[in-house]
Amino acid sequence: MKTTFALVMLAALFTFGCQHKTPMYSASGEKLVMVQKNVELHRKSPNIWPARGWVAATEDELIFVPQPQYWPVPVYVHGRDSTFVRLKEIDRFEKKNRLLILPMGLDVVTKDGTRYPFVTARREKLINQLTQLTSQ
Fold first, then answer.
1. Mean pLDDT by 10 residues, the chain (136 residues)
2. pTM
3. In the chain, fewer beta carbons within 10 Å around the N or the C end?
4. Residues of the signal sequence (predicted)?
5. Has residue 14 been placed in a domain?
6. Residue 12: inside a domain, yes or no?
7. Rounded CA separation 66/55 (Å)
């Protein structure tokens, strides 16, 4: 009984004590201005929907980094399947509702008409941060 309790406590310690922290710099060494975790991006390539991960912004671009998903087959590789959007190319933000009532959808539309449909529970915060970055 004591060993079972000790194993459960040890598993809880590793689960909650060793959390993944998002680095505050990009691979090229640029400082990240904004980071938001638990974001989904619905995209057509690769053809697995949705990609779950986190969004970061540097001074020049918006970056979506998917978290690796290994089941049933390896789908996303950290860094390789990232999506990059230049902040200068963003034209507007369109709010969308999920399931007709949940205010969680956001379409980032570029000047050439490309749509990046994001889903996040903190949509307003993401819009405010991106608006501040694009206005600079």
1. 56 46 59 87 68 87 81 59 89 86 88 91 89 84
2. 0.70
3. N
4. 1-21
5. no
6. no
7. 9
